[in-house]
Amino acid sequence: MADYREMWEKLGLDLAAHDGLLEVLPPLYQESILGQENRPEGMQYFDFVFSEVHGLRIKELVDHRAAGGIVVGTFCTYVPEELILAAGGVCVGLCAGAQVAEEAAEQYLPRNLCALIKSSLGFKLAKVCPYIESCDLLVGETTCDGKKKYYEILDQFQPVHTMELPQRKDEADRRLWREEVRRLAARLEEVAGKKIDEESLRNAARVINEKRKALLRLAELRKCDPPVISGRDALLINQIAFYDDPVRLAEKVNALCDELEERRDQGISIGGSHRPRILLSGCPMAIPNWKVPTIIETSGGLVAMDEMCTGIRYFRHLVDEAAADLEGMLDAIADRYLEIDCAVFTPNRERLEHIRELVRDYDIDAVIYYALQFCDPYTVEAFRVQQELEKERVPFLYLETDYSSEDVGQLTTRVQALIEMVETKRPV
Ligand code: SF4
Ligand code: SF4
Fold first, then answer.
1. How far apart are CA 276 and CA 4, in angstroms?
2. I want to staple 389 with a disulfide (CB 3.0 to 4.6 A). Which of 316, 325, 327, 394 is the partner?
3. pTM of this prediction?
4. How confident is the model over 312-343, as pLDDT tens digits?
5. How many angstroms separate the CA atoms of 157 and 165, rounded?
6. 79 CA to middle of ligand 1, Å?
């Protein structure tokens, strides 16, 4: 990596703490991602992006701001990226996938709060995230109670605009959400000093749709058996999709898909004999949280699909680009986001149906449910998911964990037992 120290210093990072973080990432990346065999060549781009995660991409953000643009940080897939892009902004998903400054975060937050929220504040307090420090505005949402209340604290450090997300999907909720989308648009216009018009919004919808279509194309290729891409590489791409340039990302994902199609046609797979196909479902996995997929795939399984926000939930719905005018475009955007089936909704029948669909379409052998400790929406909804899968006789394993590595041995034992059980049951 080039020398970015001056840039990091100007952003206000704590260089010593930041050095510490940068030392931890390469070995973890080697162990979880680079150590895999027979990876497609197209993954080199994503390896490069990751190697420059605090370098080149941050330089692009700095240049964008110097040219008069804004950078907006988000924490959830409910925040419409299209609006940010239409306001001349760059949208960055703020990852929070590692244990950072947990003790410091616990001076503001209760200990028994999910690791994702604690990590998010930890990154801010430790001054080690150049993304959050590059942001002109942070956009939160009233999804779970922990995040909702956390944004009030975060707002003391940096301006946060919090969107009121309804928890049901009736007409009154739709009206509220459409209003919230307009309220965000107005705030972005104010911060950016730029109007969002019909043309910029339609163009932004097209760009983000193209990104999502590319990710959908990749998701289709994950149906191949033998597999042409690992679950870990697919997860890495989805994680990078939250902060990379959307046009470039779509191009690179499409190029990778071209290669994967060729490999499929030539009978080249990422590895040997049949591996139990796992659907990973539950809480999001932000960079560099590869713990559970690594355990699954080094235990002989394949993560064939991820039913989570860092998986198919992020890109399965597209915005209808055909609306007649600006108001129509705003409604189309609001409606697209309201389709998301996060566990914060009630009832959340769509999620159960989608999981059943994925089990069928991806020829899934077992579902592993990944829940972060203290995450009420996902830990509670696990019961309904399990009930639904029992009807279909699909094996289900519930894993509740956090960001520490202390439970790796115990999780591995449970995953291995599931994989062995599935292997003995699957017809040869
Ligand atoms: S799981 Fe729910 S709250 Fe969390 S990022 Fe996804 S949509 Fe947002
Ligand atoms: S993982 Fe659960 S508790 Fe944590 S931020 Fe997401 S929805 Fe909230």
1. 43
2. 394
3. 0.97
4. 999 999 999 999 999 999 999 999 999 999 99
5. 23
6. 10
